[in-house]
Specification:
Blueprint (H helix, E strand, L loop, with lengths): L6 E5 L5 H10 L5 E5 L11 H17 L4 E4 L2 H6 L11 E2 L2 H11 L4 E6 L1 H6 L1 H9 L4 E6 L3 H6 L8 H16 L4 E4 L8 H8 L4 E4 H15 L11 E4 L3 H12 L7 E3 L3
Parallel strand pairs: 1-2, 1-3, 2-9, 3-4, 5-6, 5-7, 7-8, 9-10
Helix pairs in contact: 1-10, 4-6, 4-10, 8-9
Length: 266
């Protein structure tokens, strides 16, 4: 039995496109409805109450699009507002636990780094998820609040001096912590993966939450026998200017989505 309804994905802005990229790579027959809340980005500096309200509004919008599954492609929502999953009539997948599982599988020393928004780091969600699976793990975490604005502005080139120096400063305590695995705890961060990899060095494995989440989505669809049997058009919605979103999205996804992007009001 197939289910040709789309997969719903939401994020505070552009970062969730790194999850979409991995979903399309692993599940090419599945269609995506994406909502990027570009009018209210970033989420990571907001209060827990505000993040919870935003998450519910984003999920309600996706449900109106008749999605069969919702992915919270936002580290902040996954860390702070994951309880909204209990209110949904469709399966819900967050990004924290899949990333923790991948990190535990990858580490050889048990020293695992986590970078994310202030709300994500303060929640200690990744630390709890890792320690649940590896009780003697050492967690070294640091908030990187400027990473999201850098990605939203399109400042993602590995040779960008401002981006490199910002990343070097944020990653200093992670390097001092001698980690061998680093969770990119915000879906914006894989856009800066080359910069981060250059600074961390070859001895550190970077965990892209998008890859882990795509595998979780595949397993969920398999368990419910809900794979699509035909390809339909992907749709992208934003709460602010569609043009600027489309320009940066092209860099993140590797193809032009300009004709598929629409600005909406929640």
């Amino acid at each position: 039995m197939s289910d040709n309804r789309p997969i719903g994905v939401f994020d505070s802005g552009l970062g969730g496109l790194t999850v979409v990229k991995e979903l399309k790579k692993l599940l090419p027959n599945e269609s995506i409805v994406y909502f990027g809340d570009t009018g209210r980005v970033p989420y990571g500096t907001r209060s827990d109450e505000t993040i919870l309200r935003y998450a519910r509004e984003d999920e309600a919008f996706l449900l109106e699009q008749n999605v069969k599954l919702i992915v919270a492609a936002c580290g902040t929502v996954s860390s702070v507002a994951y309880m909204t999953s209990e209110e949904l009539p469709v399966p819900f997948i967050e990004v924290v636990n899949p990333a923790a599982e991948s990190a535990v599988e990858a580490t050889k020393t048990g020293r695992i780094g986590v970078i994310g928004t202030p709300a994500t780091i303060n929640s200690r969600a990744h630390a709890r998820a890792v320690l649940k699976r590896l009780t003697d793990a050492v967690i070294v975490a640091n908030a990187c609040p400027l990473f999201v604005p850098l990605v939203e502005e399109g400042w993602i080139d590995a040779d960008d001096e401002v981006t490199y120096n910002t990343a070097k400063r944020y990653l200093a305590p992670i390097i001092e912590g001698r980690v061998d695995t680093l969770i990119l705890g915000c879906t914006h961060y894989p856009a800066l993966e080359k910069v981060i990899a250059n600074i961390m060095g070859d001895g550190v494995t970077l965990i892209n939450m998008g890859t882990s989440v795509a595998q979780k989505v595949k397993a969920t669809l398999e368990s419910t026998n809900s794979f699509a049997d035909k390809v339909t058009v992907d749709k992208y919605y934003v709460s602010d200017r569609a043009a600027s979103f489309s320009a940066i999205a092209k860099n993140l996804l590797g193809h032009n989505i300009e004709e598929c992007v629409e600005q909406v009001k929640l």
